[in-house]
């Protein structure tokens, strides 16, 4: 009995440490915790068997995702129509799946790099962490939420984002954690120079100016936050009250160059409202303004799209109903916008028949939206978390990043605040101001360094007025993407393996 309790101590400690990681992200933003948590994980993995390491990593993941994304349960429980036990079971299944990736990291680290030393903690651990993150962001369409780098948006490490994106920040977090772990294991204080240099360089990069503000193209925007209750949004009786609410708030802001409504702000298919949209387009053109709104589309062959529509001062001229000329969301949310293995799952529970859960994905790369002479890279809700997709759609002519969202599915949880934190990182990576319009918050704009310059309170009807200055030039990340990190990862793992082979006994480099 005593031995069993002793064996469970490390996995239980790992679960607690993983749960602490949530404090590093919004709304808490205690960014040092993002270094402390993997540091403690590395210490817990020290001299453990391969199976024991996998269990420790899995428990760390259960802690991180069980606490960090527990807000997903709100949408399942409140809108999914499932019994409580079924909704909790589905949430546990999701957390259990995501925990596989930290387990894979821990397993691979102790399987291929069992000997403590520089090769394990400074090369292999950061590289394997990136690989596990990339896998989590790709398998089954990906879920790259809570990458450690996001927690550093307000730390000195944030200045690495224009160089290598959120992955480079994650690498710097793991290098710092590895160096601190090696310091504790080897008692060599000189290793503290590694995180010291990393943070000093981060401070120094604050002076770098990768892009230049173009003050001649300053533009006025108005973001309308309708605050429509999710439970009533799609009721037929609420359609026109919702549409008129947005219309009335728009009339009060015709002096803005661009007026933005959130994701699926219009609770109807576009083909059902062509007369209304024609009139709204004419009014916008008369006032030399552009309205951008989320809207749903349906084709003749019964394909459904989550789309973005621009009306008014656009190159397309007078409004025409043409689904092929809309931006269509590419990265769809599993179960929310499409159901994997739907022939099997849809008959099982009402949750799998949520409204609008049979969308078709748009193209990976689509043209920027042109509004009042400005080019905007759109990303609908969930897909703002896919940094390489946003980068691929951002051109040299892009003025702003635009994300339309509806986080009303997640109530008053921390989910929408984490979502905003992720969006801020896209602005910093690409050196472009970001516009984020939502149904009930967080509605905000940032400058090209990812700093929020204006926002309105959550859960209130309101209009955010702001002036934005676009930028010219490219950040290194915009130009090169993640390829330099892919190459570093491969070389780091190769070097780590070579160092492992040269070791004669476990403590040679400690």
TrEMBL record:
What sections of the protein cross the membrane?
12-45, 52-73, 85-109, 168-185, 192-211, 480-499
A Pfam family of this chain:
LNT_N
Quick one: which pathway?
Protein modification; lipoprotein biosynthesis (N-acyl transfer)
E.C. code: 2.3.1.269
Q: What is one term from the GO cellular component aspect held by the record?
A: plasma membrane
Q: Where in the cell is it found?
A: Cell membrane
**What membrane topology term does the record carry?**
Multi-pass membrane protein
Could you name the domain of life of the organism this protein comes from? Bacteria
Sorted keywords for this record are:
Acyltransferase, Cell membrane, Membrane, Transferase, Transmembrane, Transmembrane helix
Decide whether keyword Iron is in the record.
no
Biological process, per Gene Ontology? lipoprotein biosynthetic process
* Span of domain CN hydrolase: 224-470
Q: Which PROSITE patterns match?
A: CN_HYDROLASE (PS50263)
The entry lists its GO molecular-function terms as: N-acyltransferase activity
Functional description taken from the UniProt entry: Catalyzes the phospholipid dependent N-acylation of the N-terminal cysteine of apolipoprotein, the last step in lipoprotein maturation.
The cross-references to HAMAP family, in alphabetical order and at most eight, read: Lnt (MF_01148)
The family note in this entry says: Belongs to the CN hydrolase family. Apolipoprotein N-acyltransferase subfamily.
> What protein does this entry describe?
Apolipoprotein N-acyltransferase
